[in-house]
Amino acid sequence: QVQLVESGGGLVQAGGSLRLSCAASGSFFRINSMGWYRQAPGKQRELVAAITSGGSTNYADSVKGRLTISRDNAKNTVYLQMNSLKPEDTAVYYCNAEIFTLLKLRYDYWGQGTQVTVSS
Questions:
Q1: What is the arithmetic mean of pLDDT over 37-53?
Q2: Rounded Cα–Cα distance for residues 40 and 58 (Å)
Q3: In this structure, are residues 91 and 40 in contact, taking their beta carbons and an 8 Å threshold?
Q4: Which of 13, 49, 93, 99 has its CA at a distance of 20 to 30 angstroms from the CA of residue 110?
Q5: CB 7 within 8 A of CB 72
Q6: Angle made by CA atoms 114, 8, 111, in degrees to the nearest 5
Q7: pLDDT at residue 3 tops 90
């Protein structure tokens, strides 16, 4: 059973920083891309940032220059360093991973979500 476990959310003032972590556990063949999505109340879930197994990154325009995604392939973990946070960054953040199982079947897995609240 593959699981993604997130940590690091919380309450922070505008201009502050948070670091989210997401670790994949269980038995699998390989992790391809990993990423972070967010969903604010009344809005659709949106991509925040993604990173390939080779380290190529992709960011939403609204977070470029403030949020940085990285990963540790040896630890099967992806991080999201969040700096210069704004109230509009308030949302539940979800970790996502494209994982090939031991049978070489591709699945998208999601974490349980972690709340990030930025006060003005």
A1: 97
A2: 20
A3: yes
A4: 13
A5: no
A6: 40
A7: yes
